[in-house]
Known about the structure:
Layout: E1 9-11, H1 16-20, E2 31-34, E3 40-42, E4 47-51, E5 54-58, E6 65-70, E7 77-79, E8 83-87, H2 94-97
Antiparallel strand pairs: 1-4, 2-3, 2-8, 4-5, 5-6, 6-7
Amino acid sequence: MERTTDDLRLDGNAAAGLLGEIFAFETTTAITICSGCDRASPVGTLVLYGQHMGAVLRCPGCGQVMMVVTRPHGEWWLDLRGVRIMRVAAGPSRDQAR
C-alpha cells in the first residue's frame, strides 16, 4: 500500500513537546495569524507534517507553511515566515508576583 502525505498529517498538538523545548510558554494555545490568508488559529489546530528532518506546520485554512522546526547538529532552527502574528497569553508580571 502506498503512503500519501495525508498519512503523515497530525494536528499541531503533536508538536507540543518539540515546541516546548524552544519556548517557555504553552505553545499549543498561542494564537497565530497566517500571513497567507489572515486566519487566526491556535498552534494546536495547525496541520503538522512531521518528518525525520523536522516538522512543518501548515495553516488549516489555506495550507500555507507557517512554521518549520528543525534540529540539525544540536541547534534549533525555527522558520516562522508564514506567521504574521503570534499572540501569547501573558502570565503575571514580576511586580504582580511579589
